[in-house]
Amino acid sequence: MRPLNTTITAIPPSGIRRFFDIAAEMDDVISLGVGEPDFVTPWRIREAGIYALEHGYTTYTGNAGLPRLRDLICADLASRYDAHYDPATECLVTTGVSEGLDLALRVLLDPGEEVIVPEPCYVAYQPCVRFAGGTPVEVATRAADGFAIDVAAVEAAVTPRTKAILIGSPANPTGAVQPPEVLRALVALAERHDLYLVSDEIYDRLTYDGVHTCLGAVPGARERTVVLGGFSKAQAMTGWRVGWLAAPAPIAELCLRVHQYTMLCAPHVSQAAAIEALAGAEREVAEMVADYDRRRRVFVKGLREVGLDCPEPAGAFYAFPSIRASGLDAETFAERLLREESVAVVPGTVFGPSGEGHVRCSYATALPQLETAVERIGNFLRRL
User: What would be an example GO MF term here (predicted)?
Assistant: First the structure.
């Protein structure tokens, strides 16, 4: 048989999955690995989906998404972050943020062009760049700096083939929130070198210390920035598969063109539910965010008490403790912790070379489970 696509065959399977394949065969595992809220989608959002089903909203929508939903997305960006987009020409409803990322990279890149990706970062960033024909160029961030992006290191990585910079803030896996001065410096760098910016802001509402900065609202950024967001995290709507992108009209128009031929539209029922999420579920979202904040403080305090160096994450729902004191590398630590104490975490190396010496722990699980997990981690560390 003739060989299959060489770009795709060269991409390894997700490094996260191996540990959960092991965990699936074990009993009494506490999983701190999956980046998914443990909350059920709030009732009023589910009820909007049920209403949509009962009233036959099972058809395609317009390719760009329901006008009411796009209006609400843009109004929310304007009121919350002073980021202004035209819902008719600069906003596209996508099938999750994952599709939005894929669309943005396909539209921005020609084959062989480079995208600078600060890491540790979400596991899909580099593969999606490659799927779009580009080349990811990793730039390390450091725990000692709170995983803030080193703008000088980014600039040193720019070549004539560099086309864009891809960032996530708040970040998966570190929980880092990029300081406003770093974002401003990145925009200035992009202006100097005529680069695009792709900003994954799916965790925007999960910002605990200070206020989230939307990159599209930073002076000078708007005309070269694609902002990605959605409903999976703060609204606990992972399975509904609905997100959005906001970008200047020339970029948004081409993203829509690819979307028309590949996805057509996000699910009608999910869009109806997302309308309710924005229009009527603010109280429920605020309650979930407050609960994550409580878990964050309890969990990080517990990790420190059992001997792990763990900065308090400023956003998302992940802790990224250093496990160097254990004397184990990240892969060995995660595998032994799973097999010996039935606690599933993700080795930091899954998210890039700078993740060595760390593991990712999601605190999007019930507080009693988190407390038991900390106790088991302490037992594991004491035996080493």
Answer: transaminase activity
Exposure string over 79-91, b if 16+ CB within 10 A, otherwise e: eebebebebebbb
Query: 322 has which bridge partners?
Result: 309, 358
- pLDDT per 10-residue tile (average), the chain, 384 residues: 92 76 77 89 98 97 98 98 98 98 98 98 97 98 95 98 98 97 98 98 95 97 98 96 98 98 97 98 97 97 96 96 96 94 95 97 95 97 92
Alpha-carbon distance of 99 to 97, in angstroms, equals: 5
- 271 near 242, Cβ under 8 Å? yes
Question: Crossing angle, helix 367-383 and helix 282-305, to 10 degrees?
Answer: 20
Question: Alpha-carbon distance 253 to 92, whole Å?
Answer: 9
- Dihedrals phi, psi of 119, to nearest 5 degrees: -135, 155
Tell me the whole-structure pTM to 2 decimals: 0.95
What is the spatial distance between Cα 383 and Cα 231, in angstroms, rounded to a whole number?
A: 42
